[in-house]
């Protein structure tokens, strides 16, 4: 998984009815775009995440068109 600052990290809900969590990647801490990432959620909360298989990166070009 590779990402850049400004991309979105989407963590999909793990059970039926649970919503996805979307966060903006504000800093890439790993080499070459690899995790971990410092992310900022919509409510302003920041965290450092090493995404698992339930996560997806939406690259900046993709989510600007939405």
Account of the 3D structure:
With 66 residues, this protein is mainly β. It has one domain. It is 8% helix and 38% strand. Strands 4-3-2-1-5 form a five-stranded antiparallel beta sheet. Strand 2 and strand 3 form a beta hairpin. The two termini are 22 Å apart. The model has no long low-confidence stretch (mean pLDDT 90).
SSE series: EEEEEH
Instruction: Tell the overall outline.
Output: globular
**What strand order characterises the main sheet?**
4-3-2-1-5
Helix content: under 10%
> Structural class per helix/strand content?
mainly beta
Per DSSP, the total helix count is 1
Radius of gyration, taken over Cα atoms and rounded to an integer in Å = 11 Å
What's the end-to-end separation, in Å? 22 Å
Residue-averaged pLDDT, rounded? 90
pLDDT < 50 runs, ≥5 residues: none
Counted up, domains total: 1
Strand content: 35-45%
Question: Main β-sheet, in a few words?
Answer: 5 strands, antiparallel
What's the short story on this structure?
The chain is mostly beta strands and 66 residues long. The chain contains 1 helix and 5 strands, in the order βββββα.
Layout of helices and strands:
Elements lengths: L7 E4 L9 E8 L8 E5 L4 E4 L5 E4 L1 H5 L2
Antiparallel strand pairs: 1-2, 1-5, 2-3, 3-4
Descriptive keywords:
66 residues; mainly beta; 5-stranded antiparallel beta sheet; 1 helix; 8% helix; 38% strand
